[in-house]
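Exam prep: given the inputs below (a chain plus iron/sulfur cluster), describe the expected output before reading on.
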Amino acid sequence: MAQMPDGEIAPRDGLLPASAALGSAERTLHAYLHIPFCRVRCGYCDYNTYTSSELQGVTENSFLNNLLREITLSKNVLEALHSEQRKFSTVFFGGGTPTQLEAEQLALVLETLKSEFGLEQNAEVTTEANPDTVDERYLNTLADAGFTRVSIGMQSSVSSVLKILDRTHNPENVAKAVAAAKSAGLQVSVDLIYGTPGESLDDWRESLATAIDLDPDHISAYSLIVEPGTKLARQVRSGELAQPSDDDHADKYEIAEQMIAAAGFDWYEICNWSKSPATVSRHNLAYWRSNDWWGYGPGAHSHVGGTRWWNVKHPSAYAERLVASESPALARENLDEAAKATERVLLELRLREGISIDYLKSINPQAAKPISHFIADGMVNAEDAIRGQLTLTLKGRLLTDALVRDLLG
Ligand SMILES: C[S@@+](CC[C@H](N)C(=O)[O-])C[C@H]1O[C@@H](n2cnc3c(N)ncnc32)[C@H](O)[C@@H]1O
Ligand code: SF4
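Solution:
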């Protein structure tokens, strides 16, 4: 996350190679907006986000103006590429803490996307939210503007765990935010983290039970990653906190599956469960299925037709580019067929619907061998394999990375 890939220097006009237009009729278009502000930084987080003292004079207002400039630039770049302009199927505001901005400011950005591109009918429009930053008025304003979904950073309900994570939100505000979002008519997702040093299995069960009691539409559960350069990494290195163990993560993943499924949710991606097919995150599915998306904002990544690029990281560098009417893209790369295939296996195997065995054999003629081992070891579903689809069992979900390595040979 903190590290940017290398790539080639991106052109200052942001124009894309003609190859990026190929096959675009088969792909949907999505918008991600990166809002790089947080009131305080949580000890485990290495996202591209800044507290006020780190912003080098960038204000929320100036940032917003530059975000709108990038939307205009994206329209020009995509118009130069395609004869027919696509509307956005989904929009996702992430961060950082998008809800650090006023609701009216988020609404203005959405309005601009609508007027420049248009949204597909029934478009999904999500914002991430820190529970301390939203109330009824805020969420009603978002719903009135066309937002359909809010994803709330709950992480845990256990105060000792929240403390180790350095979370400053008041756990009681999670229930308030969920209730306010529901009364505004928004779909609700909650994010949880498991495997925090010192978190017992019972602590994790308590967080899951609390999340389930909130009756959200969707739950995401992520294992805590110790990201290099974070306060958490320093605490683990110095021995102040224990390194989270793979066994603890696996036990907690199994508990999550058991409790969340028993409450009527189905997994549709390794870390994501939904109450119904209507409440899956269509935005995230678009990434996993390698559709096209424009990532707006500092450090945001984009992908259009096999060309991937990423923006300059700091909000002040981002501002400099856009004020000079230049693209904020720092570098880019064109994925060759082998890279595209690797990525497709990595992403699609994570989905409940899995990946076609014929496709796997087409990219690796030796794939039949590991597949028969996976079936024998109960890591993939035998019945699905007979009908030509490789789908993971719970055991396989715990070992996805190893399976991907074997499949790619
Ligand atoms: C940008 S944050 C969500 C919005 C808001 N900033 C908040 O934290 O409430 C996205 C999610 O990433 C997850 N996340 C961030 N750093 C992580 C890490 N090191 N390991 C696991 N999950 C992490 C958290 O679950 C968090 O809710
Ligand atoms: S987890 Fe969310 S609130 Fe905490 S620093 Fe990261 S982006 Fe900000």
